[in-house]
């Protein structure tokens, strides 16, 4: 298992439509393992393949122990709505309030390629919607009002030079205390 580099805002892969996974190969299993390792090392709660430079329709999530591999996920039902703050591992230090469905039902394949259906609410539902968006080239900042988006992107411009080549190197345990505290107070965490 290894830690993968995370692509940050500006890398065109984050805007690229993914390709459905046809088969769970050994290589894909390796990628899934590496994505979990990377997500935990970056202290995120979700990670989608384009964020590590890949085009497979694949994401991983772990929201308070609810751990899922989502291959070819499709949202089949949405219910209610909720606003909460979100962040993204590909747009470090930038946060914004996004309205999402409160509850969603998805169909996907698990890490063994077995179909499953899952109904999730609250943070897990939010995280899943954020990851499914990633698989279609969509980012949380796209939902912000023009003014809030401008301010978020200005915020990002100040951060951008910290990520040469639009790559975020993930070093486990590197996160300063302050950021960990932010993570626990931020409703959605970084996904
Ligand atoms: Ni994200």
Task: Summarize the structure in short.
This protein is of the alpha+beta class and 191 residues long. Helices cover 28% and strands 27% of the residues.
Explain what this protein looks like in three dimensions:
With 191 residues, this protein is of the alpha+beta class. The protein has a single domain (6-178), classed as Peptide Deformylase (Alpha-Beta Complex). 28% of the residues lie in helices and 27% in strands. The chain has 4 helices and 9 strands. The chain has helices at residues 26-41, 122-134, 146-160, 177-185, and strands at residues 6-7, 46-48, 58-63, 66-79, 82-86, 96-100, 103-109, 115-121, 167-168. A hairpin with a 5-residue loop joins strand 7 (103-109) and strand 8. The protein is globular, with a radius of gyration of 16 Å. The two termini are 20 Å apart. The model is unreliable at 176-187 (pLDDT under 50). Nickel (II) ion binds next to helix 2. Residues 88-90, 130, 134, 191 line the site of nickel (II) ion (NI).
